[in-house]
Amino acid sequence: MTSPIEAGVIERHNASLRADHEADFHSLGERLARRGLDADALVDKVARFTVAVPSWGTGTGGTRFARFPGPGEPRGIFEKLDDCAVIQALGRASPAVSLHIPWDKADPAELKERADALGLRFDAMNSNTFQDHPGDPNQPLSYKFGSLSHADPAVRDQAVRHNVETIRIGEAIGSRALTVWIGDGSNFAGQSDLSRAFDRYIESMKRIVEALPEGWRVFSEHKMYEPAFYSTVVSDWGTSLMAAQELGTKAFCLVDLGHHAPNTNIEQIVARLIRAEKLGGFHFNDSRYGDDDLDAGSIDPFRLFLVFNELVEAGERLDRLEPAHMIDQSHNVTDPIESLIRSGAEIRRAYAQALLVDRAELRGLQDEGDALLASDRLKAAFRTDVEPLLAEARRRAGGAIDPIRAYRASGYRARVAAERPAVAGSGGGIV
Amino acid sequence: MTSPIEAGVIERHNASLRADHEADFHSLGERLARRGLDADALVDKVARFTVAVPSWGTGTGGTRFARFPGPGEPRGIFEKLDDCAVIQALGRASPAVSLHIPWDKADPAELKERADALGLRFDAMNSNTFQDHPGDPNQPLSYKFGSLSHADPAVRDQAVRHNVETIRIGEAIGSRALTVWIGDGSNFAGQSDLSRAFDRYIESMKRIVEALPEGWRVFSEHKMYEPAFYSTVVSDWGTSLMAAQELGTKAFCLVDLGHHAPNTNIEQIVARLIRAEKLGGFHFNDSRYGDDDLDAGSIDPFRLFLVFNELVEAGERLDRLEPAHMIDQSHNVTDPIESLIRSGAEIRRAYAQALLVDRAELRGLQDEGDALLASDRLKAAFRTDVEPLLAEARRRAGGAIDPIRAYRASGYRARVAAERPAVAGSGGGIV
Amino acid sequence: MTSPIEAGVIERHNASLRADHEADFHSLGERLARRGLDADALVDKVARFTVAVPSWGTGTGGTRFARFPGPGEPRGIFEKLDDCAVIQALGRASPAVSLHIPWDKADPAELKERADALGLRFDAMNSNTFQDHPGDPNQPLSYKFGSLSHADPAVRDQAVRHNVETIRIGEAIGSRALTVWIGDGSNFAGQSDLSRAFDRYIESMKRIVEALPEGWRVFSEHKMYEPAFYSTVVSDWGTSLMAAQELGTKAFCLVDLGHHAPNTNIEQIVARLIRAEKLGGFHFNDSRYGDDDLDAGSIDPFRLFLVFNELVEAGERLDRLEPAHMIDQSHNVTDPIESLIRSGAEIRRAYAQALLVDRAELRGLQDEGDALLASDRLKAAFRTDVEPLLAEARRRAGGAIDPIRAYRASGYRARVAAERPAVAGSGGGIV
Amino acid sequence: MTSPIEAGVIERHNASLRADHEADFHSLGERLARRGLDADALVDKVARFTVAVPSWGTGTGGTRFARFPGPGEPRGIFEKLDDCAVIQALGRASPAVSLHIPWDKADPAELKERADALGLRFDAMNSNTFQDHPGDPNQPLSYKFGSLSHADPAVRDQAVRHNVETIRIGEAIGSRALTVWIGDGSNFAGQSDLSRAFDRYIESMKRIVEALPEGWRVFSEHKMYEPAFYSTVVSDWGTSLMAAQELGTKAFCLVDLGHHAPNTNIEQIVARLIRAEKLGGFHFNDSRYGDDDLDAGSIDPFRLFLVFNELVEAGERLDRLEPAHMIDQSHNVTDPIESLIRSGAEIRRAYAQALLVDRAELRGLQDEGDALLASDRLKAAFRTDVEPLLAEARRRAGGAIDPIRAYRASGYRARVAAERPAVAGSGGGIV
User: Fold this and answer.
1) How confident is the model at residue C428 (pLDDT cuts 50, 70, 90)?
2) Which pLDDT score, from 0 to 100, does residue C4 have?
3) C222 and chain B in contact, CB less than 8 A
4) Buried b (16+ CB within 10 A) or exposed e, A301-333
5) What is the pLDDT of residue D426?
6) Least CB-CB distance to C65: which of A130, A230, A334?
7) Chain A residue with Cα closest to D371
8) Does the residue A95 lie in any domain?
9) Is position C84 within any domain?
10) How far apart are alpha carbons A192 and A197 in whole angstroms?
11) How many domains is chain A built from?
12) Is there a domain that residue B363 lies in?
């Protein structure tokens, strides 16, 4: 297995931090033991938890106003895979990559080979019918007025075919799921028939479901708004659930943490979808205003913890669902590799904290109506600094105790900046 | 039939406005004719559309901070019915009243007799397990920590029994539906198990459904928050739909216009519930911030129109559902009778405007992707001043051309203020 | 004066609609007369009200996900001016254009000459430091981490110089104001020092104010979020007011209708800024979710009316302020010319409706605490269909009774589509 | 000094926890020392930080739907003071109480004497013109349509007199500030003149400011909505700032954490008010939807931390302002004493975490545009479990290591429940 990070970097880095880390891990272990928890068992659980990184997340993101690229932007899927390998080498939380078609289109055999060489595998595939792809012979018709729900059956056919093609690529590289997010909707009341648009979406999705190989799942991803600003065809989890119900046993709902109305209690949506046996997976990120796509846990870390609290609480009910964990973020002002390493760690942090909750005790307090102690017990888990558990999980897997520091020490970014030509800062002119 | 409004009042009032009204109706008729619409047919449709008033809406509402009663507050259900009869006599849009138990508990035979005498009938019944009713022997246990979803089965039993009792009263007075809104939820993360609480709600509701007489429906009413401020068991339409699906063919979802997250596209929820064949009815009101319970159409009249646009658009699909139309408002600074008369008219206004849309033309524009003209056609219907149609519908039914003015001329409020003792302005001390 | 619209088009179009229009205008006049209002006087007032169009609004807008251009996109400022002349020729509400530098950079003399020939003039200038302009020798430093508030004084200098250059261009073409909107802010708590960033903004703005010619004003435009998603330096009207106060008598606040938090009462902000004598002007548009930049009046027409109600209510206090009226919209799914014609009309509609309010009567009802009648009087003005007044104002000024229909009849879009090469649908890849 | 908690309770409780606490404090001290921080110095700083409790917070709160009292509700201000003494005895964070007039009206000498005996003092006074107080001879006129901004000067006079009376009581008991929160606003567009209402508010406040004794401050407290649902006279910090500017050097702005629009960045408002030298103080609580008045730090603990981050960051600039720290919460489902003890601790927790930030390092990262490390350093402070510091600060001051557990062990609630008659669960009937 090749690695874009020189072997000695992590070793030297860890050696320099070892003493302090061991002291912290030991002291945390003692405190946890007092609560009846075994630090080593927790490290094992954390180590088994992974989250896929999005190929498109390795490039600098932007807004409709501008994009400000950094040095060493990956120029194609193979350079993106290199970057993903760096993330995994240091953070050890992200062995899988989620591809976006047509952005990442390439020979499947080469993709597979390159991923194998880097020790990566492929998670859910993402199709793209929210953009036109000028020059693509497979897309003669525009998605300006919709794709899977377009009024014109020819556009719907084209969009269905694109999704089927995405599945086929995924099949060839070992993926097992397709995530469908469409931008279909309308900007004006009256522009679109709210009911018929949804009918057409369902009809198109049925054809995609029919094309799914054995063992595959499809995730319908809802979003409140953007790019459409009056109505969106799949705008909320209720609509997503209706779709998954009609589409049958291979169809599930995907929860992106930034796709909800203001003030929404997202963890309760997670609980509802588990109960409906339709929770398919997550797009992790954080946000304050809209679909801000910020780094997971950066705006409201308690919310992220509460989502994981539901997942841990669900216990065996979740085993049947095996939700897919993916990151979906836009890294506008940071080095994307750093943000993805950190986000993997933040997601694991929320999981680790949720593991600390004494479920039996909590249930007892809930049943007694002891709101104060019940909430305190949950908060106590959240405010436990589990960093030593995360670091130990990384260390044992060959990763870095402090992966950001190790990454900076590695000189990777400077090296690829020298190899990859600079991209001009784009001034979109879209306001 | 007795009427609390002297017969001559409306007659004299209408006579004084007749000439102007006829001119306006005629001129509007000409403009509508140019668009291929028949004013008389529209008046007929409008006249057939009615909306139930809530018994509790006849008293002055308030907030947790204070309630400022007006003169002549009704002291019980029979005086409330008198006030409802005034609303109907003048506005002719509200022949039915929706009761709230135990607030309106009384001998069913007397209720029926009084309503008959006033020319009123009873719409959906409302149960109440969001409050404790001190001294009520049927409610020994507190709802502080929930009702239908309470952790304690004894509390759930009590809440179910209360709902069954409410159904029985409704049966005796000719109602055909039960609206269930519960305040169950939690104020702290951890206080309540989000999944088990919903399981218990479903289990309790199943027992209520079993108690429904033939031909009855039950409406589950969701609400984002308040009185619970962290989580609410039935918080959104997705949860309400899951409930209605599990509860079977008698269970439907009720949409209160003020119970949604900020920025929510309510008309699309209406469209989705029609498609799912689970739209049970509406609680009409308006709001800007939360469940403000303001007068229908007072904050965002275009939104109210768009809801009716979906209802008219649904056409025959809606005939099977026959959604219940009810007002649910809190009249804090107005004479409740005036607000309810006006709200009935505003709701009819939205309906009348929606009737003006040329559905075939709109569909054509939608299919062509002509966003601008499609939205303009819809807006043209909205900006048509249909007041003469509404006034004519009232007039033909024996109501007032300008019902607020006629009400003020009637002296009703002063008369009941003399009969009904003043209520002290309450300073709740709940902040 | 040259016009891109053939003279006979409007004439023929108006002739075909004349009879119906006159009947409608006459009948509305009668109804207004009954309320003591003179239709001709209203037409005059409406005709005097104009709103500037943004040069950038003539091209198809988009989102970070995609932009779907239409046929005949203008390739530069001169073609944009042609399109603006069409808007004015038909709608007669927009004799002025607002430029954006560097997008519209050109020889000022040529700009002036072309505008004169088309019968247009220039409204407020807009600077742009929210994007990098690759290849521009005046912008060697990146705005990735801010512009006027950047931690590095060299970047601030550069941004100040750009604003001064924008003023100079404006001076040469007859503009009298500069609008400053910056995207400065941060995506993470901690990334930026919230206080020092504002200090630096003020310091930079002081230098811009010093560069303002006699008689010029500068508008600070606040926005809650986007492109920054954790904090924004000038995020709300309170911050904008603090800035305008510190910057002195030439500095004012600009209100963009889509730049506020959810549920905000915008008309009250307008009232506050009038009282503070700091209302500089407006960017009109409409929105439901965020800075959606939809067509004015398309989402919440009542809100637009209420803004104008404050302007009319302010009366003479406003005369001193002379707020600038500009449109700022993103036309993603319509022909931009059509949207801008319509938006000008919608803005005038709101103004015309506000003129109908009997201010003395309203004040009396307010002072008596007659909430119901006060709100009804306001709503009565809003629901008056003033289209005949708007059409007559256009007609008398040489414009089209139905400008959208006349525009379509003119064949302008097809003509420019033949002249201007098609632009590829961009797939930004920024998600 | 009398104490409602038996002396031995805390002693015995602390003894039982001593060993573990000392181990935790020691181990935290070592980790902090590695970051250059001195645990003892931090304990001292934390110990000096206090937050006033609201007298009204000792009773169970509620909503417009219901209030569910617990056992042993305090019946008047003297029993409330007893409860406050318990909070302080155990938590040692709240030596001061904030009174609400007329709710807490009593002989000032008796109030002072009782507080002295309990070791308490009085923080800012709160007036109340958002309710009518039936039977109060000082309030013959209703506040239904406003108080300080009422259209009728007689009502304004009455409201001003009430505020002056509140100041006089405060003077007699050693308070130094008056907090003015009014519910004035409107429920309908048109009901109120947005500008004149604010003019009248300013005029009334000027008279209150004139009545302030030497050394006193007045805090204007803004709130977005509730009890008014269309407009609120003092709705946002911009309005509050305008008021404080006009009212002069004794007038400041109070920030209640729950009184903002959805998604608002509150810490930036704090930074702005510090810069404007107008930050008067805080009402601490937490909320997700509106003015939910939940326990501080229970919904979004990171947000609370970020507010304190601004306070610590402001450093000496804040010394001149000396903002008042008060809790304002509604305890609907918990024992109010427990919630207030916990909230005091949560507020101190946020303060303690903010003290951990290396300001020089952070500033350096900010100036370099190192968004990732800057945000990580801040997050590292937040995720440090400072509970041992808080416990040690309590312990050294004579309080309880685990104050909730000690409180439960004390039997205080059961004892007062036996003395104080049960209050009936109120069913407001306000919906």
Assistant:
1) very low
2) 86
3) no
4) bbbbbbbbbbbbbbeeebeebebbbbbbbbbbb
5) 57
6) A130
7) A334
8) yes
9) yes
10) 7
11) 1
12) yes
